[in-house]
Write a structure and sequence with these properties.
Elements lengths: L2 H8 L17 E2 L9 E11 L4 E13 L9 E8 L1 E5 L2 E5 L4 E4 L5 E5 L5 E8 L10 H7 L3 H8 L1
Antiparallel strand pairs: 1-2, 2-3, 3-9, 4-7, 4-9, 5-6, 5-8
Amino acid sequence: MAESQLAPERRTLRRFDGDFAWDGVETLVYKEEGEAPFSKITRQLLHSDSGLDCELRFFDIEAGGHSTLERHQHVHAVMILHGEGECLVGDEVYQISPHDLVTVPAMEWHQFKANAGAGLGFLCMVNRERDRPQLPSESELVQLRKYAQVASFLDS
């Protein structure tokens, strides 16, 4: 395993640089291109701990960007740090802003979007070992679109 992947578990202090980056933390691509639909998003692994069995990650979405619409067998705890946007969790759409805490239950569809005028940054706590994301099938998208608020969110 590369040093940059091991470093989060061994560091006691990571200084914040004021621009949503931390010393010794590499900014990574969100996912490989073509793996799933997403736009204008990066990730940073801030902390990984075998004793806690969790990872703390930071995601930064540029204005108008979004994460992938997906679901997993694991829970997410998401704390908004900067910006405003919307998130889909299950069949509900929520307006989100700094210091909001979003809990994404296991196997719930979820997606985060930054508003067009500004980016959105959030911390995400997840299990260290976790399953691969599941993308919606066409029939699952049809089911989600039955909710007017969700259809509007997906089309925006």
